Structures are given as C-alpha cells and as structure tokens.
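sorry for the late reply, my laptop died twice this morning and i had to redo everyting from scratch. anyway the thing you sent over, i finally got around to it. pasting the sequence first so we're on the same page, its 529 residues, then the predicted structure underneath. double check i copied it right bc i was rushing
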Amino acid sequence: MSEPSSSRPSPFAHRAKREPLPVVPAETAAPAPPPSPVSPEPAVRRGSRAGAYALASAAALLAFAGVYFALADAPPRSAPHLGEITDSRRLAEAEARYSSAVESARRRRCDKASPSAFAVVTAREASARASAAAGDVDAAVAAFDAGAAASLSLCARADMEACRVALARLPDFPEYSGEAGREARADLDGAERAFASGDLRAAAGSAERAANAMPQVLAVSRSRLKSLAAGAEARGDLASAAVFMRKLIDLGGDDPAPAEWFMRRGLTAGASLLSPKLGLPLAYVAPAKFLQGAPVGETGRESDEVRRPVTLTRGYWMGVTEVTQSQWDAVMGAGAAAARLSRERGAFRGGSMPMVCVSWHEAVEFCRRLSVMEGVRFRLPSEAEWECACRAGSESAYAGGRSFLRTGEAVVDEGVPGGPDAPRPVDAASTAVNAWGLRDMHGNVWEWCSDWYGPWTASAATDPAGPDDVAAGRADLAMKVARGGSWNDPALAARSANRWQYAPSVGVNYIGFRVLMEFDANCLPPAAR
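ok and here's the structure:
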C-alpha cells in the first residue's frame, strides 16, 4: 500500500493553529437559481433577497384585502353562534360554583348536621336543572347561584361553630395561644361581621381560615399549659399544676397525660364526687398496692382467703353507699323497687333502704342503663377493687385497723335474741364510714362483684379479675362473688377478706350491690377544676 502524499495538506491543519473554523458567506451558502428566460424589472436585481421579500409582502397584502372585503359583503353569521357559546359557558360556570360550594358543605358534614337546610340546597339544584332543560338559562344560573349561596352559608356557620366550641374549652386562650390564637380570633370576628352583613363568600373564607388555624392554636396552648404545669409541680405547687392540667383536659385531644396526672397525683384517696346526672355520691380510690386476703391466724379466716400482693393500676370512683331503692327507681323506672319488693315486709322497703332481691344479672343491667344515663361507664367492682376500697389502707380484719366490730357499727346478726332481721337505711347516722368515706362496707347486705368465684395463689397479681367466662363454665366455678357480709350473717362474715359466692340468678333480701364509676378525666370534683 502506498503512503499518503506528504504534499497534500490535512483538512484539520487549522486546529493545530487554534484558528476559528472558516465561515461560509451567506451569499455562497446557497447558489442562486439559474436566470429566468424573462428578465425582471430593472429596479429588482436578479437573485436579490430584498426583492423577493417585497414581492411576497405585496401578494400577502392583496390577499388580505380580498378576504376582508369578501367578509364585509357576507351576511352576519357569528352573532347567534357566540350567544350560544356565552349561555353554555355561563351555565357551566354557575354549576361549577354550585358543585364546589356543595362539596365544601359535605366535607363539613352539613348534610348530616343540618338536613333540612341542606335539603334547600338540593332543591335549588333540581330547580336549576329543570330551568336549563327548558332553555331558560338565566333562571338556571340564578338557581345554581342561590344553591351555592345557601351552601356557603352552611359552611360559614359550621366553621364558626367549630371555632366557638374549640375556644369555649379554654375561655382565656389568648393567654396561652400567642399570635396564632390572636389571628384565629380576628378571622372568626371577621367571619361573623361578614355573615351579619350578608357577604357569604367573605364569611365562608374567613371562617375557613379560622377553623383551619384551630389545630395549631390548640397545639400551642397545650404546649404552653404543659410547660406551666411542669413548672408548678417542680416548685411543689400542686394546686396550680392541677389548674393547668384541668385546662389541658378541657382542651380535649388524645393526650392521656392530664388524666394520668389526676389519677395519680391530683386526687387523694377519699376525694368525693357526685355523678354528673343523678348525683350519686362517690368516693375516690387511687391506684394502689395492697395485700388481698387474710393473714394466717386471723380469726374467722377461711382457706380461700390466701394472702397475695395486688396492684391496681387505675384509680376509680366507688359508690359511697349501696344502691338505694330510690336510685333503682331513677334508673329502672318509677315504682320498679316497690314492685320488686312487694312481698317483703315494710322493714325492707323505703327510698333510702338498700335495693335487695336483685340478681347479679339485674345489677349488671342497672349499671348498663346508668352508664347510658350518665355518659360515663358504671359497672360492678371486681373482687380486688372491692377489697381495696373496703380496707381503705388498712391490713386488719376490719377497716380502721381493728380486729373486731364495735356494737352498732355494722348491721350483722350476732346470733343473739332480738338481733337484726332486716338491713337499715344507708344514710343512718350510725352507719360506719371508713377512712375513704365509704359506708356499710361491713355488714348490712352482701354486695355483688363482677368476678366469677375461683381460688387464687399467693403469687402477685395486677388488676386481677377472677376466672374468665370459659373457665367459669365449669360447675364448680358457676358462682359470682359477693362481699361484705349482711344483717343475716355473723360479724366474722363481714371481715374485709371474707369471700362468699352465689349463683348469678339468685335474688334474696340480704344481697344488694354498689356501683363503681370508671375514672374519667371529664368527671372531676370542683376542687380539681
């Protein structure tokens, strides 16, 4: 193969000299077409680009003029067409405004909260669609806009009410919510002014801003109150800490810390409270560790009273007295107690007498109805909860640190001539009150507990509840626990640790019950507010 000739220059030689690439002149980039047989006008140079532009512009001008005069002479055809487009657009825009407003109202559940007012909104839609079908666009647009206005009114009302409810939880919220609270308050005030003046769109907008700001306002307030409560507790000022914790509870939310604080720090055992609706007297039993059962050597101790350490992790409210006949009537219906006790002697009947002849199942039903009435859960106490309340911090056979009952301290049958043969009123002045303010925990009538009866060991237990329903299906466990003794039993049966059992269908004149209200942060005594 022959080598390339060295005399031939390289096409890339210019790169070595870092010279710019050669630029092709515009005139040589595209060679001119061959000359036409017909010579152009002398003023236009052959091959000139400027001449070509001039000819093209002239042709375009002549074409435009022809189209213009043609259109000017043609009959008008665009006016009806534009009118149809305008009506269609007006109708579509009105329907879009209506749909947007209705969707906002549905998000706020106005259709559920104000069904009659929302029915007016849907009626406007039906009217609008009927007018549109009849070709009356003006009426259809007016109906859609009226429906949108009604929806905006519902939205504004719903948002303003939500803000009022939130702010009512903490009347002095500006002190804790800072700038976020002031802005929300200003938006709410603006919404109320706009609503009063009939500017529904402005009212809805301001109310929505205020409602959207509420979560931040409440979050800022909670953070501030928690900080103040922690500071007060660190100083040992539990009263001030309780005030701040109460405000936290009033704000609502899912934070369990304020309720836990009251349960363990803010309330002392024996604090008193009346139930929200019926005013049932209740006494507080704080979370506690205690010894359940009786020690070996206690007089009257039985084999099922095994002593064991028990921890109750939650506080609760125990009925100060056994449920009375007047309380039974208030929940189960007027005259219910008298009808049930019609066969008993007069000594067993009376509004302040304990309700007896009630089976375990009927006591549970009473608690269920009471819970619905009060808005707080009531139930029968567990055996451990009952004994903790009865002992009131003591470890002796009877509350108060004593190993015996004084004469007249409790209604029990001592087996002596002329002994009691009926319970006494629970409000009797001589009724024994333990350290936590509970009456008749010893004697008077047996009290149903929630547990199925069964044995336990000496091992520690936390919140024990007795055998479950499956285990209780055995014949030897088909009994419910009763505690406290009665007028029909000796004093030894009224010891704090004594256990007894009855079939849950039994209802006799020496068995009654008392209720337990579960701890609820919304139910606190006035001193804790």
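Residues 1-7, 10-32, 34-56, 58-72 have pLDDT under 50 and may be disordered.
thats about all i looked at so far, will dig more tmrw
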